[in-house]
TrEMBL record:
Region annotation (Disordered) ranges: 212-239
Domain DnaB/C C-terminal: residue ranges: 128-199
Family matches, as InterPro entries: DnaB/C_C, DnaD, DnaD-like_sf, DnaD_N, WH-like_DNA-bd_sf
Family label: Belongs to the DnaB/DnaD family.
Pfam hit, one: DnaD_N
DnaD N-terminal domain sequence ranges: 15-112
The protein's name: DNA replication protein
Length: 239
């Protein structure tokens, strides 16, 4: 018998790694997961309501055990039995697997939201540390409160506050009032991201270089006007 041919004819089933990684968080046992996957594999082959006796034989379980598994996965809301009626009035049953995907999506969304909260908390904690490093001392309670106000009340991104601090340090102005003016100036120009700050700094640098070039050119012209006129007389030629 050609087992390779039989293997290929049996078809393939795709299982997301997310399901394998998180099925315990859905409240499923390993046996319940295998049962759910067995039903799903038949569904992928077009059998929407397979014979449970056949699944029992494949899993090495009794009929009563398989029916118990069916009750459990339905109770855990990862599978739903749907009854539909066709145009001739005949009722047909099928399995709906979408409840599992919906529950898994909810879990993953909650994970992503928590990760974002944790990331922001880490950013804020790191921001306070940077301020203390740049100021060379611990922050006072009022300073903590003012920085927190930028984040919680004014809703400035922690990265934007860090860049404002960096700008202030560049100008030798380690002052929260100076940093506040920088943030207000950026806000008036709708500067809210690191990229926007970089572009604004590049624009200011270009404007400064252009101004210096104009001043230098003007100074050179005035100096040229102060030079004595060049004579065309040849001192070695007799008059």
């Amino acid at each position: 018998m050609d087992f390779v041919k039989e293997w290929l004819q049996a078809g393939q089933m795709t299982v997301s790694r997310l399901l394998l990684q998180h099925y315990h968080r859905l409240g499923l046992t390993t046996e319940e997961l295998v049962f759910w996957l067995e039903l799903n594999s038949y569904s992928q082959q077009g059998e929407t309501f397979p014979d449970l006796d056949q699944i029992a034989r494949q899993m090495g379980l009794s009929q009563a055990q398989v029916f118990k598994l069916l009750e459990q996965v339905v109770a855990k809301e990862v599978l739903q039995i749907v009854t539909a009626q066709d145009s001739q009035g005949r009722q047909t049953d099928s399995y709906d697997f979408s409840p599992l995907y919906e529950k898994l999506t909810t879990i993953l969304q909650a994970d992503a939201a928590q990760a974002e909260v944790t990331s922001k908390e880490d950013q804020v904690s790191h921001l306070y540390q940077i301020f203390e490093q740049e100021f060379g001392r611990p922050l006072s309670p009022l300073e903590y409160e003012r920085i927190a106000g930028w984040l919680d009340e004014d809703h400035y991104d922690p990265e934007l506050v860090r860049l404002a601090l960096k700008e202030a340090v560049t100008h030798q102005a380690r002052s929260l009032s100076y940093i506040d003016r920088i943030l207000l100036n950026w806000e008036s120009k709708n500067i809210k991201t690191k990229e926007a700050v970089t572009n604004e700094q590049a624009r200011r640098k270009m404007a400064l270089l252009q101004k210096e070039a104009e001043v230098s050119q003007g100074a050179g012209t005035a100096e040229d006007q102060q030079l004595p006129p060049i004579t065309l007389h040849n001192p070695f030629k007799e008059d």
